[in-house]
Amino acid sequence: MRAANNFSEHFTGALRFPCVCSLVEIIRRAQSIPMKVLITGSGGQLGHHLQELLKAKRVEYVATDVNELDITDFGAVNELIKKYKPSHVINTAAYNAVDLCEENVAIAFAINAAGPWNLALAARENDCVFVHVSSDFVFDGTKKSPYVETDPPNPQSAYARSKYAGELLVQNAGGKYFILRTAWLYGDEGKNFPTAIIERAHAEEVLSVVEDQVGCPTYAKDLAEAIFALTQTKAYGLYHGVNKGSASWYSFARAILKEVELDATVQTQTAKQYAKGVNRVVAARPAHSELATDKLQKESGYTFRPWQEALHEWAEKKN
């Protein structure tokens, strides 16, 4: 992908019971705010669930992926938005290969920072609401309680820095925006941690899984619903969007295998042990990145269900 020509110049100066809220209220809000949505990164997990949700709600949308739109090209972004005239632009495109970002820093910043900046600028120019998805990795993981939106970020890896840069650039672009930080995302389509654990359980007698990193497993279907609920408001700003509760990778893996009724032995390992056992660069990850979602619930009326309930629904579709 091509980085925006003026990115470096500007950036250096820039720094189920899926919803327990009232269905009647959601319908009322949906009727009050007409929508036409442009989705970027539509081939990914969240993009898939957003399309399913918008179809169900009979909301007009245009789905684009990397083959249709290079988000690092401002001209292409602006031209497409002018062509389709959406009311909302939802950016789910990202370079999420956390470890590879250490070796491909320029690509990470082009896609995770310059891309959202281009989209935010074009959305502002065309009077669209812009929705951008960020990450729990912007935090260093040293806080022992759930992070809130006002906690200061302290990114520890190239991936995390690129995501935080994207947040700053979206905010500095001005205009109407929602930024949602999420974590440990998985969905019905594509590869993710649950599918990887299931594949490993079929191939390995003993699975070693990291137990000293804790976060919030989040079902992309639920995140899509939270995004939609927020877009029915004008409470623009920064939010956290994750399923309730937290888990270690180890406890998450055990829950996955129990849900799909696979009998496999799972043992714990530390993040350091994992890093020593792989023949590649391993990026730093936050040890504890649980996110609080009180602000999103207050402003949108949407309440995330516990991650265990969300995982159960996901697994039922796989069984």
Characterization of this structure:
- The structure is a single chain.
- The chain is an alpha/beta fold and 319 residues long.
- It has a single domain (7-190, 218-244, 291-304), classed as 3-Layer(aba) Sandwich (Rossmann fold).
- The chain is 44% helix and 16% strand.
- It contains 13 helices and twelve strands.
- The chain has helices at residues 7-11, 23-32, 45-56, 74-84, 98-101, 105-125, 158-173, 193-203, 220-231, 249-259, 271-277, 294-300, 307-318, and strands spanning 36-40, 60-64, 88-91, 129-135, 176-182, 185-186, 206-210, 214-215, 218-219, 237-240, 247-248, 265-269.
- It has a six-stranded parallel beta sheet, with helices on both faces. A two-stranded parallel sheet has the order 6-9.
- Helix 3 (45-56) links the parallel strand 1 (36-40) and strand 2.
- Helix 3 packs across helix 9, helix 4 (74-84) runs parallel beside helix 6 and helix 8 (193-203) packs across helix 10.
- The protein is globular, with a radius of gyration of 19 Å.
